[in-house]
Amino acid sequence: MNSVDIKYHADPESSNELLPQFSIKLISSENLFGMSKEVLIQHRGEQYHLRLTRNDKLILTK
């Protein structure tokens, strides 16, 4: 799993205030799906289905 660090610079319109920095996780779909076409994601007690379509698009449903 890769992490992409995004660093924010001073916003020229907000009197040179620095915005906080944070990380966004970058996960390749190959690592996420493996050999399957669907994964289940648990979020706040609910399950969501993330599917890979025939046209190589992603669909997230509850």
Please provide a written account of the structure.
This protein is mostly beta strands and 62 residues long. The protein contains 1 helix and 5 strands. The chain has a single domain (2-61), classed as Complement Module, domain 1, CATH 2.10.70. The strands form 2 sheets. It has a 3-stranded antiparallel β-sheet, with no helix packed on it. The longest helix has 5 residues, at 29-33. The model has no long low-confidence stretch (mean pLDDT 81).
The percent range for helix content is under 10%
Broad shape: elongated
Second CATH tier, the architecture: Ribbon
Average pLDDT across residues? 81
Please give a quick description of this structure.
With 62 residues, the chain is mainly β. It has one helix spanning 29-33; strands at 2-6, 22-26, 38-43, 46-52, 58-61.
Features of this protein?
single chain; 62 residues; mainly beta; Complement Module, domain 1; two-stranded antiparallel sheet
Topology:
Elements: E1 2-6, E2 22-26, H1 29-33, E3 38-43, E4 46-52, E5 58-61
Antiparallel strand pairs: 1-2, 3-4, 4-5
